[in-house]
């Protein structure tokens, strides 16, 4: 069914247009442009993985809210995609570290919860209106948070070790 591809098409088109505008309308240094271009391509890939229609997993039992499969119990039905979600959001945490070099660990933890909530909320809305057959899962929010924190911690540690090298990447 073609309707279930609409959310992905809208996200990819919007990301492409905004990224193109953002990269070309502001004067960036070469390394900043390189990081932003990489993050832009990463977002396009992330949206493809998170919002392309799926056909669900018939072996996992979930509750349903208005025909949207959801899991609100942490650690219930942990699967290999938990590790994939951690790896998938490491670049987001790394990008956060480059942009927000002066935030503490608590602020980083609060900031890192946002991508998982946005992805799962977006999947819920897209599944509710366009039946993309994605599972809204609390474990995904937790694993996305862990991935962001891991990326943030690694890049923040590298920045502390060699701050002059990383100033070329700084956005502040």
From TrEMBL:
Swiss-Prot/TrEMBL keywords: Membrane, Transmembrane, Transmembrane helix
Residue span(s) of domain VanZ-like: 39-156
InterPro entries in UniProt: Teicoplanin_resist-assoc (IPR053150), VanZ-like (IPR006976)
A Pfam family assignment: VanZ
TM annotation in the entry: 6-23, 35-55, 108-129, 141-159
Domain of life from the UniProt record: Bacteria
Protein name as annotated: VanZ family protein
Organism: Limosilactobacillus alvi
Lineage: Bacteria, Bacillati, Bacillota, Bacilli, Lactobacillales
């Amino acid at each position: 069914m073609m309707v279930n591809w609409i959310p992905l098409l809208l996200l990819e088109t919007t990301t492409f247009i905004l990224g193109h505008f953002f990269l070309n309308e502001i004067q960036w240094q070469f390394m900043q442009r390189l990081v932003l271009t990489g993050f832009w391509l990463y977002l396009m890939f992330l949206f493809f993985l998170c919002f392309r229609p799926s056909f669900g997993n018939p072996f996992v039992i979930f509750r349903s809210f208005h025909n949207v499969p959801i899991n609100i119990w942490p650690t219930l039905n942990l699967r290999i995609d938990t590790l994939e979600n951690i790896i998938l959001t490491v670049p987001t945490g790394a990008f956060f570290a480059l942009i927000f070099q002066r935030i503490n660990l608590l602020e980083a933890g609060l900031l890192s919860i946002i991508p998982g909530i946005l992805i799962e909320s977006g999947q819920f809305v897209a599944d509710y209106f366009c039946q993309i057959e994605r599972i809204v899962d609390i474990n995904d929010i937790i694993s996305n948070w862990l991935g962001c924190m891991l990326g943030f911690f690694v890049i923040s540690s590298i920045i502390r070790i060699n701050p002059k090298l990383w100033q070329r990447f700084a956005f502040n």
